[in-house]
Amino acid sequence: MQSLRIPIFYLLLSLSTVIWCLISLLVAVFLPFRARYRFVVQTWCRCAVWLAWHIIGIRYELHGVENIPQRPCVILAKHQSTWETFFLSAYFEPLSQVLKRELLRIPFFGWAIALLKPIAIDRSNPKAALKQLAEQGRKRLEQGVWVLIFPEGTRVPVGEIGKFSRGGTALAVNAGLPVLPIAHDAGRYWPKDGWSKTPGTIRVIFGPPLQAEAEGPRAIADLNERAFAWVEQTQRQLGVLSDDPVVDGAAKV
Length: 253
Hints:
It contains seven helices and nine strands. By secondary structure, the chain is an alpha/beta fold. The chain is globular, with a radius of gyration of 18 Å. InterPro entries: Plipid/glycerol_acylTrfase (IPR002123).
């Protein structure tokens, strides 16, 4: 049955993507940003998470919800699969995600995402990307928007963790806000590569907000190290890290 559930899941997800993006392109332009986010992103991402739960059997449980600050800040999340992108985009509202500029060129999906104030960077130009993240990220935070960053820069398989870029902690330090670290084991059930999916319960852990103790480059580096250490330790507690887990990731921002 599982071999049938997976193509059914992808069929429904693809249909919902095309249909909802078309509706969003017609409706969203007339909505203010927060209502637009709820209409376009939360509805569709909740649909994706619901399909994964009820068709494939990928459930989830949350821990440390009490750690989430009342005021939006910078989210530094472990990146293992596509599931956490769906979940975090639905859970935090409104949210601006740092993503590759190329994604905005994808028909329907990219066009709809472009309406939601993403921070779309050019990874081939790290200096320009850092400047863009600093400028646009600060504006989003000032507007009361969560900023989601995957500091490893790309999805990293279960058992490994990529080095964290400092772009997220630099943004938080310069804005005078904390970072919210998030660990999970989504890659166990929704792997980085391939179409296979495995039923199970993803554990999502929200860490304590981490605040810089000073300003400047040293404070940024220290905050980045503390965020990395918490995520690494928590991934070990989840049982999803090997003995020598750190790899050279694609993180540049």
